[in-house]
User: What shape does this take?
Amino acid sequence: MASQPIDVHIREVGPRDGLQNEPPIATDQKIELINALSRTGHQRVEAVSFVHPKAIPQMADADEVWSKVDRNPDVLYSALIPNLRGLQRAIDAGFKEVNVVLSASDTHNRANLNRPTEDSVAELDALVELAHANDVFIELVIATSFGCPFEGDTDPKRVAGIVERAEAAGIDRIAFGDTTGMGTPKRVKDLLEAVDTNLPRLMHFHNTRGTALANIMVALDYGVDQFDASVGGLGGCPYAPGASGNVATEEVVHMLHDMGYNTGIDLDKLLEVAEMAEEMVGHELPSGVYKAGPRTRLVERS
Amino acid sequence: MASQPIDVHIREVGPRDGLQNEPPIATDQKIELINALSRTGHQRVEAVSFVHPKAIPQMADADEVWSKVDRNPDVLYSALIPNLRGLQRAIDAGFKEVNVVLSASDTHNRANLNRPTEDSVAELDALVELAHANDVFIELVIATSFGCPFEGDTDPKRVAGIVERAEAAGIDRIAFGDTTGMGTPKRVKDLLEAVDTNLPRLMHFHNTRGTALANIMVALDYGVDQFDASVGGLGGCPYAPGASGNVATEEVVHMLHDMGYNTGIDLDKLLEVAEMAEEMVGHELPSGVYKAGPRTRLVERS
Assistant: This one.
């Protein structure tokens, strides 16, 4: 009897985390990108974020984008939010899943959210209460889980402490954010050893230093089956111009399918969307599988 | 008692496999590159190849390059050769280590070496005899070990058969070449399960589809401790313009050091050589650690 492939769940973050780190594109193009991604077999798409438009002008049109998307009933769309105000906007817009973000690093939390980590953690009870009162699934994203560009290494115990409080608050899932590509196989192992939780775990890796797929291998060994990825590798690194950001969805899907995992995603369709995304942002995207094609694509001998 | 780091041996292939896939650069620059790499703590540098200049014009000046290099006594320099004629040239030039290459795939062997794989394998006895008569260490590189761009997947049993004959012929080490980046964690595992040998094993991975560091993780699990890598990720993919070739040495060293392995290489010095290599070839190199800096390099909060 052949062994059954195991399902791995990919969340497409190109329209949100990807575009957030690219020069702004037109509202219509964002809608077109989300619609195209929704036809690739993707089951989860992070569509927009409800953040202050002064902080992230790329997401100022979130309400308009979301109101005009052709929503595919087979796709679960989510929105990223920084606080209660963002959650209310997401609820008002009709989202049934949100990801609230905070940073394990205090300096990064202050830079990103203008308050210390503790203040963000203290808000989790109210966030969960409001979300669940509206039948909204709420994930906590712990940014800088593997290191902070200002502070350096993140102590896995500090992350574990945040997870414990999130679980007590009633958060539905934990995402570990490798915000600036400081994750390595060692850091992933140390974190997953340190964090003791019954909550579903999701890994958000950046490929800034080439380690993303190696990190995913380690996480799979620890039973993690949920990963973020960005079409074409859309989105760069805010602290290193020209460097890569989010791991490219095609590279994740290509490796996982080769290993016998099932993602539900049609790689050929996804590669077409990568081409579309590259045209939208007007510069080369870093995805290796997009540039070279899948390993199964043969060359004619000249 | 703290655990001791384990040694991993990196061979720098930028001057050979890297430059072979770049537009030609001046002889003086090649010498400068090899000299600079020899001062990074690298213990092994693949300096040149002795191939027919019509096949690879980038290596036509191999004799001149090698005669003018400032040879560091702490560095073991090697040359790649395709056949007996190349071996004689390497011996005449004074090399004490050579890597003879053949392809597991017949179509690739014909394209690269103008003869079927079997003819290359049949020459191994004579190659070993000539090498050892001259106190030269001889490695066999099995190109297309994980897949062929013309034929597709490579049967690990076919590779295992070549290894068996190489061992019988007296070859000193086996290198498995991921010639066009078709290696994946699954393919690496399948190959290392299939190949039963007492010879030292070396892995030559390309990062064309993002999997190189994940592949290295798998190989480490199988006890492999020798890897090829190219400074800056020098050298592209001959079948996919713009795509990556050899895994960048900085990315390998950066991950291994973080995991507690010792390579003897000074990453900061290596990054300076990556910058030099980028200037020489005149285009952006793909190394993420070169672009973004090591994970330990912090950012000032603005």
